[in-house]
Amino acid sequence: MNLTKELIHRIQSVIGAHKAPVPLHVPEFQGRERELLLDCINSGWVSSVGSYVDTFEEEVARLSGCAHGVAVSNGTAALQIALLVSGVLAGDEVLMPALTFVATANATSHLGAVPHFVDSAHDTMGICPASLRAHLEKIAEVKSGVTWNSTTGRRIAAIVPVHVFGCPVNMNALKSVISDWPMAVVEDAAESLGSYYHKNPCGSLGGIAAISFNGNKIITTGGGGAIVTNDLTLAKRAKHLTTTAKLKHKWAFIHDDVGYNYRMPNLNAALGVAQLEQLGDRLKQKQLLFDAYAKAFNGLIGAKLFTAPEGSKTNNWLVTLMLERDKADQRDSLLESLNMANVTTRPIWTLMHKLPMYVGCPRADLTTAIDLEARVLNIPSSAKLGVLQENVA
Ligand SMILES: *Cc1c(COP(=O)(O)O)cnc(C)c1O
Fold first, then answer.
1. What global pTM score does this model have?
2. Ligand 1 binding pocket, CB closer than 6 Å
């Protein structure tokens, strides 16, 4: 059998054969969603204040191993404000993987800062600490505790490790690099709610983190995001800035900064509270699905299932196939055939430095990112496909 037929056969042995496309990832509403939404509507508090926002913030923080949470309108806004309160200014550079969703770069650009793209590692698909160190040794210098890019003359203010598809970045090695090149660490934990690096949840591994609750993520609020941190000062500033920077007063409208209306509506938070109650179920279902795929792909030649490294526990947000190097030239024809067979399959993102608005940005050698871009595919990963395995077993 050729690789195309083999893949379709093995994937369908897990998810079944279907007359309509099996989506990559759909949300599940199996808990108190309807009850809490109705309660929210009946309360009249559907918009920018309400008790569901408070509960949601507490729960998101708790699940992320952080003391504080700030609910916002989406993950991109969360990233932008996390960077802002971490001290990123217009004209600064922010290190991030070239292999990420465009929001990481956009959030940086919205602050007037400049994305600076670095390479990824094969074992995590996230930033490669070794090549980061080599790159910084080449282009950066530290003066009075501040890291500068000596080739552009700009300050390097922060780094954004992205936990790709839920797999945690090698944070210990990354932090050892940052100890020599000081800068803020802002996690892009948009995809990694429920993932752990050693004993610690993603979102608690840097100074501050951004999470997304978009409809395609493991838990959704329809659209939404959150900032989580253990730093009370950062949390307070983030809450203030995302709620129009209004000072508390019985009636007067006094604002002390150029704030943002990035609040999460109470209606979305109500949905989110019900969703978060099911995070444990979702994680179990997605693990069952991953295990079923692992069994089905056993002995397959030409592609293998990406597996998180020892010590990490991924939330299995999107199941990832990695083509062998000699099969990379078949990627586009595989995409065509699998999607034709109703097995929704997607490539990983186009590297950031190839997008027209980011071609001119500074970047490191991107050898591994280029290799991963050519070989990574995502296959149907919805939690309900895991429920199917439960029934089979
Ligand atoms: C989804 C996502 C974001 C942005 O979140 P939105 O809620 O869609 O704005 C940022 N980074 C990564 C890696 C993402 O997957």
1. 0.97
2. 74-76, 100-101, 103-104, 162, 188, 190-191, 212, 214, 225
Question: Which residue, by CA, sits nearest to atom 5 of ligand 1?
Answer: 75
DSSP state of 299: T
| The listed CATH number (3.40.50.2300, 3.10.20.740, 3.30.1700.10, 3.40.640.10) that belongs to domain 33-276 | 3.40.640.10
Distance (Å) from CA 377 to ligand 1 centroid: 18
38, 193, 269 from 44: Cα distances, Å: 10, 30, 14
Read off the tokens for 158: 């922060």
Query: What is d(CA 352, CA 100) in angstroms, rounded to the nearest whole number?
Result: 7
* Domain residue ranges of the chain, discontinuous segments joined by +: 3-24+279-392, 33-276
Place of tokens 């709610």: 193
Average pLDDT over residues 341-357: 98
Radius of gyration of the chain (CA): 21
What residue's CA is closest to ligand 1, atom 7? 75
Q: pLDDT at residue 170 above 60?
A: yes
Pick the CATH number of 3-24+279-392 from 1.10.1040.10, 3.40.50.720, 3.90.1150.10, 3.90.1200.10: 3.90.1150.10
- pLDDT, tens only, 277-313: 999 999 999 999 999 999 999 999 999 999 999 999 9
